[in-house]
Amino acid sequence: MSRTINAFLVPHIKKLIKAGNTVDCACSIDMEINRTLKNEGVRIFDIPFKRNPLHPINIKALMKLIKIQEEFDYDIVHVHTPIAALYGRLLKVKFPKLKTIYTVHGFHFYKGAPIVNWGIYYPIERFMVNFTDKMITMNSEDYERAQKFKVKETYKLNGVGLELDIYNPSLVEKNEIRSRLNLDKDDFVVLMIAEINQNKNHKQVINAIEILKNKEIDIKLICAGDGPLLLNLEKDIIERGLKENIQLLGFRNDINELILACDVGILTSFREGLPRNIMELMACKKPVIGTNIRGVKDLVIDSVNGFLVNVNDAEETAKKIEVLFNKRDLLNNMGSNAYEFILDYDVEHVIEDLIEVYG
To answer: What whole-number distance in Å separates Cα of residue 89 and Cα of residue 210?
Structure first.
């Protein structure tokens, strides 16, 4: 999707072009592509994909990809999202000399995944090994599993990287942001950056806030993100009498400012690859409470730069928030540790590693 390109890949593409490469993008366009890429001469091909791997529209997408490859004769195709990765790598059937690279943002089959995921996606990935020259993973669990697939070359990189330079606390006045959000300067603020869907599991943190409120511990939760469960969640918050404690902000373009306004970040997902939102929080020296799952535990070191809690364990989540609420020195130390940890995830380091993979 074009959303994926805008969110993650623009620095990579610019660096590759600067190094003398020609880079074009084929994707399902769900939002306008970053203008910088068009200015750099990147050709954008609108190739609609459906999430159902067997949907007939995906066959049409493959036909379009074949025509594009026939016309421009690319040396490498680098694929990202699962369905685009499936059909993008199938180009190797017709173009056997084409080098295929697949960046895994999180296998759909993982420890604890639904059986249907294993039944559909695992066999597909096992088969697609035959059309994959190099596979890039970004968390330990996926890397270990990918090695068993016996792809020609398997790598583990630090995600897609983060432009650490843009996270500068001195550019924004914390209390001014809080004022705009109807928060007091002394409020203890927890921030969750996530689409409001089943996987992100907002209920866990909402349950934790309710537990703390019943203990007369006043915590403010702000949630940045839109999604299919937004209205249901708003209704649930009102019915529980938590409207004074929880704000659902919807889609936001000021994530950096929201991070600077908070004290702690939180992510209570069932499944992740390597969550960028946690990386962004750490870049702003914020400790993170996250569920003990693949991807999150690659970033959050328990009791060092945050806390790990079990999925759906609202009681433990509440306890960890309370610990940081009561121990501000610990909160600050964890925030410093978080920043030191995330320095290795700077986008420049990741791009250097990626260029080696291309070599």
So the answer is: 48
- Tokens 């583990």 belong to which residue? 156
Residue 309 token pair: 């809690």
Strand partners, 162: 346
Please state, in angstroms and rounded to a whole number, the distance separating the CA atoms of residues 176 and 180.
6
Cα 117 to the center of its chain, rounded Å = 20
| Angstrom distance (rounded) from CA 128 to CA 239 | 48
DSSP state at residue 137:
E
In this predicted model, what pLDDT tens digit does every residue of 48-66 receive, in sequence order? 888 787 888 999 999 999 9
Residue burial 95-109, b: 16+ Cβ < 10 Å; e: rest = eeebbbbbbbbbbbb
d(CA 7, CA 301): 25
Helix (H) or strand (E) holding 206: helix 202-214
- CATH number 3.30.70.2200 is the correct assignment for the domain at 164-344: no
Domain residue spans of the chain: 2-162+346-358, 164-344
Q: Are 134 and 102 in contact (CB under 8 A)?
A: yes
Domain 2-162+346-358 shares a fold with domain 164-344 = yes
pLDDT digits (tens, 9 = 90+) for 68-98: 999 999 999 999 988 899 999 999 999 999 9
CB 194 within 8 A of CB 267: yes
Residue 176 to residue 173: CA distance in whole angstroms: 5
pLDDT of residue 171: 64
Specify the pTM. 0.90
CATH topology of domain 2-162+346-358: Rossmann fold (3.40.50)
CA-to-CA separations, 196 to 199, 250, 313, in angstroms, rounded: 8, 9, 19
